[in-house]
């Protein structure tokens, strides 16, 4: 096993009355597909936020590829992982799909090139959104925005993916496209953490199943 995350003694609460996690240990395997389930409000999104370095006031330690996450900048963290948020629009920072995907690429290259434009087109095509590449995001449906957010995964193919409810709001065809991408990627040795209530959709590609209960995450398979 090659852990991408190693979590020790993690406790987290939003305030005095609202404990979310209490002193638990966990490792996430870089190459495995890990599914995380749990009731509404049990802390799944909070866990993703902790892994993405978006919550600072926790106790215990979270190591990302062996380095304490508290010591890493968001830029450094995003060199290792990509986090697709539950709320579709929360993933979009630009006004069009093409601009948004360009921002993902601009970390690697500061000037636009034909190759990079082609990669964006291919990513949007995969999720059947190429036709809307220059349309304003604010006129799109929730499912369409989710498909743009998921297109960004294809530009970040070799990172560890943290997907919070990736199929929520997607039609059947789009779910199939996503599952197919995750399956192919798994065959190439890349893992992901998938948070979902729709376990059936992912059942055949899960290596490890985890559950949040009583302020802890436990492996149940
Ligand atoms: N910023 C915040 N401040 C205070 N409480 C919060 C905050 N964000 C979330 N919570 C609370 O923390 C708990 C866990 O929320 P979280 O969003 O992690 O749940 P979840 O398991 O992802 O739920 P769902 O299945 O509905 O997506 C909830 O009770 C929620 O109200
Ligand atoms: Mg959630």
Short description:
This protein is α/β, with parallel strands linked by helices and 221 residues long.
Task: Itemize the secondary structure elements and their pairings.
Blueprint: E1 3-15, E2 18-29, E3 33-37, H1 44-51, E4 59-64, E5 67-68, H2 74-77, E6 81-84, H3 97-105, H4 114-126, H5 142-154, E7 160-164, H6 172-187, E8 192-195, H7 199-202, E9 208-213, E10 216-219
Parallel strand pairs: 3-8, 3-9, 6-7, 7-8
Antiparallel strand pairs: 1-2, 1-4, 4-5, 9-10
Residues 14, 18, 20, 38, 40-46, 86 line the site of adenosine-5'-triphosphate (ATP).
Task: Give structural notes.
By secondary structure, the chain is an alpha/beta fold. It has one domain (31-56, 71-219): 3-Layer(aba) Sandwich (Rossmann fold). The chain has seven helices and ten strands. The strands form two sheets. It has a six-stranded mixed β-sheet with strand order 6-7-8-3-9-10, with helices on both faces. Strands 2-1-4-5 form a four-stranded antiparallel β-sheet, covered by helices on one side. It starts with a strand and ends with a strand. Bound molecules: adenosine-5'-triphosphate and magnesium ion. Magnesium ion binds at residues 44-45, 86, 164.
């Amino acid at each position: 096993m090659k852990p991408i995350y190693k979590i020790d003694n993690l406790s987290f609460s939003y305030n005095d009355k609202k404990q979310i996690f209490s002193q638990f240990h966990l490792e996430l395997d870089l190459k495995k597909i890990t599914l995380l389930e749990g009731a509404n409000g049990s802390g799944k999104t909070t866990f993703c936020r902790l892994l993405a370095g978006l919550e600072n006031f926790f106790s215990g330690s979270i190591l990302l590829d062996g380095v304490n996450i508290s010591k890493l900048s968001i830029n450094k963290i995003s060199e290792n992982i990509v986090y697709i948020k539950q709320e579709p629009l929360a993933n979009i920072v630009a006004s069009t799909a093409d601009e948004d995907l360009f921002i993902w690429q601009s970390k690697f290259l500061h000037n636009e090139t034909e190759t990079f434009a082609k990669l964006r087109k291919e990513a949007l095509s995969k999720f059947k959104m190429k036709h809307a590449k220059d349309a304003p995001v604010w006129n799109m449906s929730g499912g369409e925005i989710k498909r743009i957010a998921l297109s960004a995964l294809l530009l970040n193919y070799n990172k560890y993916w943290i997907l919070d409810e990736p199929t929520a709001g997607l039609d059947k065809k789009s779910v199939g496209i996503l599952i197919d991408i995750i399956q192919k990627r798994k065959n190439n040795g890349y893992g992901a953490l998938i948070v979902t209530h729709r376990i059936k959709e992912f059942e055949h590609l899960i290596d490890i199943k985890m559950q949040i209960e009583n302020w802890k995450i436990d492996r149940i398979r």
